[in-house]
Automatic annotation (TrEMBL):
Taxonomic source organism: Oceanobacillus locisalsi
UniProt similarity note: Belongs to the class-III pyridoxal-phosphate-dependent aminotransferase family.
InterPro entries attached to this UniProt entry: Aminotrans_3 (IPR005814), Aminotrans_3_PPA_site (IPR049704), PyrdxlP-dep_Trfase (IPR015424), PyrdxlP-dep_Trfase_major (IPR015421), PyrdxlP-dep_Trfase_small (IPR015422)
GO molecular function, one term: transaminase activity
Record-linked PANTHER family: AMINOTRANSFERASE, AMINOTRANSFERASE CLASS-III
Protein name, UniProt field: Aspartate aminotransferase family protein
Phylogenetic classification of the source organism: Bacteria, Bacillati, Bacillota, Bacilli, Bacillales
Keyword match Ubl conjugation: no
Sorted UniProt keywords: Aminotransferase, Pyridoxal phosphate, Transferase
Length: 433
């Protein structure tokens, strides 16, 4: 026991001194140390150094979709590393895992979206998409089509382009400068139409949107929204990018989120669920039409590439992960458990007057609490603290007057575990009142 405490103390001090955490409160780290030091994962549970076993209701960062601790992925990584740990894919060099993964992804996508450029994650995938659409319009003789439109409350990552497309103000005010040629609209058709009218369609390259906004508070689109967006984009020759970094590969109960709304984007960006977080990998998937137009018109290189584009080990892990999702019919479970989750949320709303909205699609859902006014301290963080005491990790989204709890449990959650999650959330909301 003494040994364990010593180790925790040692790690805490090393962490505070040497580890700069992503999207975290630096002062809080210095005052309190890391909020968790995790040691193991198994299914929907994580263990930490305190010896706590905690239900992971957000699949860590909306990504550990097949759940923690799947040995097959470790074995796939080991086998690939031992055989060919790395080689470049620049200059048309290739290897089997990346080729097979690109071909496998094409089986999952709707329409003719069947050519993939690989990245290490979602931010790079979106930056790749922004550069690709501008390159495409340049090749087509329209270099002036370079503006990117995104929605307020969207999250598209933190590389320079993806930060600039992100519609959550804190990510912009963090620095004094973001990239030019990014514009934001409210999530209404009128707002999109107004902006196109104001800026001129001949200056706009693409519109990017998550099918369901994740980090912005699990916001579902209004009825018919994306059908109308698709029509507007077609009318004005604006490419439609669907950021499926959270929604892709089954999270919303379909292969990709936009399928729920019956539309096919020109470009999909993906990451997270493609490997269930077991290895860093993302990508941009483009339609056959776009692919062909680009390579037919291209002169010289596609001047864009990451050292880890198509990393063999990450690709081998992704292939195994997608095989598991298919073989174990995990998307069927997403739909079944998604219904249970929403039913549970509705029950919570009936029990708790301060819950003003519940929503969900597949295993992506949220509970919004009445904040009354922006001056009142949000309730969400207190609910999160109460849930933790009861063995549940969940996430609170607080900004712009929102006081929301977000949920995205692993695809492998069962009915008993879902009931437990709902019970804990209900108890935790009651406990703060
Ligand atoms: N797009 C969406 C919708 C996301 O949720 C995220 C990450 O949460 C990203 C892009 C950025 O991905 P990454 O953190 O892998 O760069």
């Amino acid at each position: 026991m003494i040994k364990k405490n010593q180790l925790k103390e040692e790690l805490t001090e090393l962490d505070k001194k040497h580890f700069i955490h992503p999207t975290s409160n630096m002062k809080q780290l210095q005052e309190e140390g890391p909020s968790f030091i995790f040691t193991e994962g198994d299914g929907i549970y994580l263990k930490d150094m305190e010896g706590r076993t905690l239900m992971d209701s957000l699949s860590s960062l909306w990504n550990v979709n097949i759940g923690h601790g799947r040995k097959e992925l470790g074995e796939a990584a080991k086998a690939q590393m031992e055989k060919l740990a790395f080689t470049s894919t620049f200059s048309n060099w290739s290897h089997e895992p990346a080729i097979r993964l690109a071909a496998e992804v094409a089986k999952w996508t709707p329409g003719d979206l069947n050519a993939t450029f690989f990245t290490s994650g979602g931010s790079e995938a979106n930056d790749t998409a922004f550069k690709t659409v501008r390159h495409y319009w340049k090749l087509k003789g329209h270099p002036e089509k370079k503006k990117i439109i995104s929605r307020k409350k969207s999250y598209h990552g933190v590389a320079m382009g993806s930060t600039s497309a992100t519609g959550i103000p804190e990510f912009h005010t963090f620095t004094e400068s973001i990239a030019p040629d990014f514009y934001y609209v409210d999530s209404t058709i009128e707002s999109l139409k107004e902006l196109i009218e104001k800026e001129g369609a001949d200056s706009i390259a693409a519109f990017i949107s998550e099918p369901v906004q994740g980090s912005g508070g699990v916001n579902l689109p209004s009825e018919g929204y994306f059908e109308e967006v698709r029509k507007i984009c077609d009318k004005h020759h604006i490419l439609l990018i669907s950021d499926e970094v959270i929604c892709g590969f089954g999270r919303t109960g379909t292969h990709f989120g936009m399928e729920n709304f019956g539309i096919i984007p020109d470009i999909i960006t993906m990451a997270k669920g493609v490997t269930s977080g077991y290895a860093p990998l993302g990508g941009m998937i483009i339609s056959e039409k776009l692919h062909q137009e680009i390579y037919e018109k291209a002169e010289g290189n596609f001047w864009h590439g990451y050292t880890y584009s198509g990393h063999p080990t990450a690709a081998a892990v992704a292939l195994k992960n997608l095989e598991i999702i298919k073989n174990e019919n995990l998307i069927d479970n997403v739909n079944r458990m998604g219904e249970e989750m929403l039913k549970g949320f509705k029950w919570i709303q009936e029990q708790n007057k301060q819950v003003i909205d519940v929503r969900g699609i597949g295993l992506l859902g949220a509970i919004s609490i009445d904040r009354k006014s922006a001056d009142v301290a949000p309730v969400g963080p207190k609910v999160v603290a109460e849930a933790l005491k009861r063995g549940l990790i969940c996430r609170s989204v607080v900004y712009d007057g929102q006081d929301t709890l977000a949920f995205a449990p692993p695809f492998v959650i069962n009915k008993k575990q879902m009931d437990e999650m709902i019970t804990i959330v209900d108890e935790s909301i009651r406990a703060v009142n």
